[in-house]
Design a protein that fits this description.
Strand 10 and strand 11 (about 155-160) form a beta hairpin. This protein has a single domain, classed as Porin, CATH 2.40.160. About 0% of the residues lie in helices and about 50% in strands. A 16-stranded antiparallel β-barrel has the order 1-2-3-4-5-6-7-8-9-10-11-12-13-14-15-16. It is mainly β and about 260 residues long. It is globular, with a radius of gyration of 19 Å. It has strands at about 35-45, 45-55, 60-65, 70-75, 80-85, 90-100, 105-110, 115-125, 130-135, 145-150, 155-160, 170-175, 210-215, 220-230, 235-245, 250-260. The protein has no helices and 16 strands.
Amino acid sequence: MKKIVCALSLCLALISCSGDDSVANVENPSATGIHLIKTIETSDAGSVTTVYTYNGDKVTGYTDSDGYRMVFTYTGDLMTKWEEYDEDDVLSGVDTFTYNEQGQLVKHIYDFEGYKDKYEYTHNADGTISVKHFTTGLNSDVYTFSHDGKIYDNKVEENVAAAGDIPAHIDTHTYTYDNKNNPMVNVTGFDKIAFLGDRSAKNFANNETSNTHTNSRGLVQPMTTTAYTYNAANFPLTEIETNVDSPNPEINSSRQYFYE
């Protein structure tokens, strides 16, 4: 499932040819008015360039060099639909978002080629978000409960049912962040959906620097670390993500960010 940079996720860096035009026309190095317009991501699979389009502060979609594109629909200042098209320009996935009267996301349904995932969110008084995940079979509207959990500012807990000799437990991903600007911080409505699914924490304003997993045996296991360089406005220019969940850490991917 291809997603916008996240935070998101997805989640997902700029070095220009001259190396110094990342904050062109920005007289005051602040977050205001700066928008991500392109990323170049490089991994073992090759290099993918993604270009974003806007209407003011609203992102209208993106297209990548593999031929995939996304179209975003707003109702007022809230994102209400994402449409995903494959390399043959065939609609393959649709995300729909439902909000309460306070503008908080309460339901997200992702339909990918007839299979659906539904997430229901409850916004708690302590600032956490409870989430329930449901799935369907092909072309079915009958949902089956998968699991539930809780989303915090810097971690996500998943309640996992007992299976075989593994007892019921809480699976936890804990994140650390820098104190810089997330590339999508100025996109209207994106803060309302930054925690999509059940593997993203609430922090939207900053950039993830590490992900640590606590598994069913209580083992605390670092998964990834991410290093950045920044421009004068404190937005990421480059990102390098390293997989540290092995005896021999290796780079997963690198990304360049371009703004205007």
